[in-house]
Amino acid sequence: MLRLDDFEVLTFDCYGTLIDWETGICRALEPVFAAHGAEWAPERVLELFGELEAEAERGEYREYRAVLGAVLEGLGARLGFRPAAAEVAAFSGSVGDWPAFPDSAGALRALQRRYRLAVVSNVDDDLFAASAARLQVAFDWVVTAQQVRSYKPCLRNFRAAFARIGVPQARILHVAQSLFHDIAPANVLGLSCVWVNRRQGK
Questions:
Q1: Which residues are part of the catalytic machinery?
Q2: Shortest CA distance to 120 belongs to which of 148, 89, 100?
């Protein structure tokens, strides 16, 4: 059983945990699908998004904007349309428009009174900066995929965070929604973690 007094640093995944990526993605994609007359089935689109994102993040590193562009092009190839270059560019930069979950900012402010806070996120620095404004706290550490040049579930992202934070791993608690990107690699490393089930009931 976790004893919260045992920890001094909370590390957070951002997208899916603090930022409502599903709503953000759907808001950005729905008009693209409408413009091309493609069938809009949000759950299926999100499932395909997850597959295509994981594929785009494997292999040689590329920035998250490029990953999102590849995802949209892959969605078009799978579903029978070709997105315009302007649509790809707009979707690639849409992260800053994705909303925070209603409870995120208040919870982070409350937790910051007791813990130091970090983010370990599969994103570019400038895209996270736009999201950080929605979360309304100043994180003590921000570790992005762009900085590490790899994407979770790669263990290098977590190890880079440990090195920067500089406290024993036993004093760090990781908080995340994604079993694939976060909980599984945290378990491999023996990192204590809390699963935030944002998809409950879906």
A1: 13
A2: 148
Q: Residue 153 in 3-state DSSP?
A: coil
**Which helix (H) or strand (E) element contains residue 162?**
helix 155-165
Residues near 194 by beta carbon (within 8 Å), at least 6 away in sequence = 2, 173, 174, 175, 176
176, 186 contact by CB (below 8 A): yes
Cβ atoms of residues 108 and 18 within 8 Å: yes
Q: How far apart are CA 45 and CA 31, in angstroms?
A: 13
Spatial distance between the Cα atoms of 147 and 128, rounded to a whole number of angstroms: 12
**Quick check: pTM over 0.90?**
yes
Q: How far apart are CA 175 and CA 18, in angstroms?
A: 10
Pairing of strands 192-195, 9-12: unpaired
First to last CA, the chain: 27
- What's the pLDDT tens digit per position in 43-86? 999 999 999 999 999 989 999 999 999 999 999 999 999 999 99
Query: What are 145-182's pLDDT values in tens digits?
Result: 999 999 999 999 999 999 999 999 999 999 999 999 99
